[in-house]
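Fold this: 10713_t:CDS:1
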Amino acid sequence: RSPYMQQVHNWYRTTKHQLKKNVSRQMTPDIGRAQEVPLRKHTVP
């Protein structure tokens, strides 16, 4: 494998890791909010 490909591979791995971290950080509040909404609908008359 050429050094260039190694570089691209490393960059891809780190970028993918960053993206996954960002996505999970953004998704979790939304999931919590999505679960709250039906509850609020039931409790409020």
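Residues 3-43 form the longest helix (41 residues). Helices lie at 3-43.
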